[in-house]
Amino acid sequence: MTAPEPETGRRADSPELLSRTALGVFRLNGQFLSVAEELAAPAGLTAAWWQVLGAVLPRPLPVSGIAREMGITRQSVQRIADLLVERGLAAYEPNPAHRRAKLLTPTEEGRAAIREITPGHAALAKRLAEELGAAEFAETVRMLERLSRAMDALGSRSE
Predict the structure, then answer these.
(1) Within a domain: residue 110?
(2) Where are the alpha helices (H) located in the chain, listed in sequence order?
(3) Where is the HTH marR-type domain (predicted)?
(4) Averaged pLDDT, 59-72
(5) Domain residue limits at 113
(6) Is residue 101 assigned to a domain?
(7) Which of 55, 90, 84, 89 is nearest to 71 (CA)?
(8) Is residue 14 situated within a structural domain?
């Protein structure tokens, strides 16, 4: 039997903890998407376009690689990637590792749109760090990354 958690008095394997975690993540996702829409709009982007462009800023990626990084379906990324290419914000380039799976890369116009978002993004990061405190902000990131790795490790298994 699992010992109760000191903070909650509940067992660590409590289904309620999973439910509360999921609901908290869903709420955070909505909050982040709302803020992202506000930050991206002046640059002519949507939150989803910003997310896909952001994924390929460090290096070009195939649509499937972007989908894996973002944890969404390949079809969703494909639709957004095609729109970004159509609007001149990104381009497809040959993939030496796979003839048919082209790489998505931002164009200069796409990079400029991201640069337009950067000041608002930095201001929000500063305000959030002030609200949480630097150490707690870093710990939050660490725990969210740990939770994501744990979910990856579980895969699609359900017990």
Answers:
(1) yes
(2) 15-40, 47-56, 63-70, 74-86, 108-132, 134-154
(3) 15-149
(4) 93
(5) 36-117
(6) yes
(7) 55
(8) no
What CATH number corresponds to the domain at position 96? 1.10.10.10
pTM, rounded to two decimals = 0.82
CA distance 17 to 30: 20
Q: Which tops the pLDDT comparison, 97 or 126?
A: 126
Question: What mean pLDDT comes out for the span 118-128?
Answer: 96
Q: Are 124 and 39 in contact, with CB atoms under 8 Å apart?
A: yes
Tokens of residue 35, six digits: 């803020």
Residue 3 pLDDT exceeds 50: no
Tokens for 60, please give them.
Answer: 């070009």
Helices (H) and strands (E) in the chain, counts: 6, 3
Q: Average model confidence (pLDDT) for the chain?
A: 91
Query: Is the residue at 9 inside a domain?
Result: no
Joined together, the tokens standing for residue 120 give 């608002």
